[in-house]
Design a protein that fits this description.
One of its GO terms (molecular function) is ATP binding. This protein has nine helices and 13 strands. It is of the alpha/beta class. Residues 284-293 have low confidence and may be disordered. The structure holds adenosine-5'-triphosphate (ATP).
């Protein structure tokens, strides 16, 4: 089953596109990491998927419905936006009661246990919580809602390292126990590597790559060898990045077939290498030989 299907989705502010031609499919049951440089359009995509924003172009279907189309759709999708919005005048406990009132699938035990474990005072006003505590409260509401799809925009940015690890653990448990699907944006690739089995790299408002993490790692290779024109590479090797010196060429390629050319020394990439290669090379090209010193 597909939880998110975007076809040519774009969002324009005045004359500027915040997201353009975004085409993407995400299957249910995955934890998908959404990465990309600042301003790439990650928050815009999540806002559109949650129904907070309407796209200027294209179509998007989330959990089989149109985002923001009514209460049934809202119940299916949880969203914790980047600024982890909470009601500053309401206490922690009032947030939980509001969550129970508004969400048909509300898991009271989970919410109460999480609040206790985090050490939030139920009587504390949300406006007087620290940034990290506010984020914890918003994340608790998102998980306890028991949505089919949970959208998280940089969920752990404000959390201390221990809280971050525990939150990611909670998330993995919710995925395993309740078949929750998650899309989370983050700049912390090491965190994504721990929890995500699917990755989407968004650069310049377009999807550069979207695939299972295992498949991505198995099909990307760093090739080093004598200086070589990229036009001589086999057609099924998609060049992600290339660097040349006077004598040597280093190229990162995506290829389903094994690299058999004995001229190359073949190295593997970590997930962080892979993300950085896509982020620092915005367009897939086979550039003419040029020396980078
Ligand atoms: N309300 C708005 N009005 C005008 N431009 C906007 C608005 N919101 C976002 N943008 C622009 O759209 C582009 C994409 O922004 P977005 O917040 O989606 O990026 P992002 O990938 O989430 O970035 P970051 O990693 O910094 O959070 C940026 O160039 C941003 O300036």
């Amino acid at each position: 089953m597909t939880v998110l299907r975007a076809q040519g989705v774009g969002k324009k502010y005045n004359r500027k596109w915040a997201l353009a031609g975004c085409t993407l499919e995400i299957d249910a049951g995955h934890v998908t990491g959404l990465v990309g440089p600042n301003g790439a359009g990650k928050s815009t995509l999540l806002n559109i998927a949650s129904g907070m924003l309407r796209p200027t172009t294209g179509t998007i279907e989330v959990c089989g419905g149109v985002p923001g189309s009514g209460p049934a759709q809202l119940a299916k999708v949880g969203y914790v936006a980047q600024n982890t919005p909470v009601y500053s005048g309401l206490t922690v406990d009032e947030h939980l009661r509001l969550g129970a009132r508004l969400n048909p699938g509300w898991d009271h035990d989970l919410a109460a246990k999480r609040v206790e474990r985090i050490g939030l005072d139920p009587k504390q006003q949300a406006g007087k919580l620290s940034g990290g505590q506010r984020a914890q409260l918003a994340l608790t509401l998102g998980i306890a809602k028991r949505p089919e799809l949970l959208l998280l925009d940089e969920p752990v940015a404000a959390l201390d390292p221990l809280a971050r690890r525990e939150f990611l653990q909670d998330l993995m448990e919710a995925v395993a126990e309740h078949g929750l699907s998650v899309v989370l944006s983050s700049h912390l690739v090491a965190d994504l590597e721990r929890v995500c089995d699917h990755l989407v790299v968004l650069v310049d408002s377009q999807v550069r790559v979207a695939d299972d993490v295992e498949h991505l790692l198995a099909t990307h290779h760093r090739l080093s060898g004598p200086r070589r024109d990229l036009d001589t590479l086999p057609a099924d090797q998609q060049v992600v990045s290339a660097r040349h010196t006077d004598r040597q060429t280093t190229v990162v390629v995506r290829s389903d077939a094994p690299i058999l050319d004995p001229v190359w020394t073949v190295g593997e990439l970590t997930l962080e290498d892979l993300v950085l290669e896509y982020m620092s090379n915005p367009v897939t090209v086979r550039p003419a030989l040029e020396v980078l010193r």
